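Reagents: none. Just compute today. RHOMBOID-like protein.
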Amino acid sequence: NDCPSHRSRFVGKCVGQRALGRFSFQPLRENPLYGPSSRTLRKLGALEWDRVVHQHQGWRLITCIWLHAGLVHLFVNMLSLMLIGVPLEREFGFVRIGTIYLLSGFGGSVVSSLFIRYSISVGASGALFGLLGATLSELITNWSLYSSKASTLLSLLIIILVNLGIGLLPHVDNFAHIGGFLTGLLLGFVLLLRPQFTLPNPHNLPAGSRLQSKYRAYQLVLSGIAMIFLVVGFAVALVMLFRGENGNDHCHWCHYLNCVSSSRWQCTD
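Predicted 3D structure written out:
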């Protein structure tokens, strides 16, 4: 980051300069999350529409997931990952949950790039919202396996709505949250199916009887529909993105999903 060489003298001293030297954090007036400058984040792979579309740096759609604005940002996301991701991984394995995590992060980056053009974005929040979305679709598709269905659904919806509500504050990329959530929701229908029936031993079946499917019909239907929406959604979004289209031109009210101005703050792109 080399804060001592690049900071503006008008924004204060680098945080931890004596102990960390060139690795010290930007002044808190510039970055209150105890992190590097936006210049450093851009160099390391932050998401930025102009560089993705006009400079052919599509890899930023992935690299931004692994960057964070500061220690506070990193701590909050890792805590969320432990609370959401670890239980899912124990239940379904790291391959399926890892796939959902990565694709949700990518989906969040794509949606963010479609709507936000003049600021950078970093963080794993889109991927984490994907895990929330996958948790919701897992509950729906495996509905009959849950004993306290209503309370589980209500608790999950409250958590999702509260987190999306926080995303309406300035300097929070709620489009990445929404894109990641929708991607994870669809992937959950595809990857997180659980058997609904116990398969009998085929050697004990009466003559002429057939094995019963271990999945219910509605699970397979939801999985097929979700896969179609997922493929079509990614295809349309990526074509729009690399053609340089602005999502706000097709949805004039969507900017309210990212930030709502108040008497205390103003929203900027």
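The chain has a mean pLDDT of 88.
Action item: order primers for follow-up constructs.
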